[in-house]
Amino acid sequence: MLLGIRLIIYDLDGVLIDSNKAILESFKRMMMEINEPFKPEEIMSRIGFSLPQIFEVILPSKYNIRFEELREIYIKHFQDLDIKYTKLLPEVYDTLLEMQERGFLQSVATNKTVTEAKRILEELGVLEFFDLLAGFMTVDNPKPEPDMIFYTLEKLQVEPFEAVLVDDTNVGLTAGINAGVRTIGITTGNNTLEQIQLVNPTMIVHGFSEISRIIEC
Length: 217
What we know:
Layout: E1 7-10, E2 17-18, H1 20-33, H2 40-44, H3 51-58, H4 67-80, E3 87-88, H5 92-101, E4 105-113, H6 114-123, E5 132-136, H7 147-156, E6 163-167, H8 170-179, E7 182-186, H9 193-197, E8 203-205, H10 210-214
Parallel strand pairs: 1-4, 1-6, 4-5, 6-7, 7-8
Antiparallel strand pairs: 2-3
């Protein structure tokens, strides 16, 4: 049981939503546009990192000076996709509603941009549950750096020991650990249980509704 919590910070992909289909389709279209091979397994293994961090791994070094241009190309393709490519994960709506009614602050910390996260959450009908969104470009350094978590704590005036981060990747969990908040690894996303265990989060759950049973004010 996690006691004394005021704020729950959620990652987006793999925690609240399943956008793997949209991510892969957007990368596929981008790679076709620049005439580079599309290797979905490489992309799936990097979900959780920011787009520039992914580009650095999957593209030849000649593209290093074009990351901002490529990010814009990717985002355009992502935004062109119908929302049917992205879905809310099981138990998310009811649990977010319950935690809001119980008086918890709730926020999102994602390596997507805030604009993109807001659009997705609004279209999926859950934006109203969040007190703050933080994303790529909100702070200087994306996850796994702790900047996004520090920003959230400062904006919502919450101490680290009063917050918990829920994330499906060791990238995101590392950000939470380095920020001094408690962490819940969840196995609904792209990292395996073994990958999550590597960073030793405070707790591990296997379904979103478990959060409501282990967090108390």
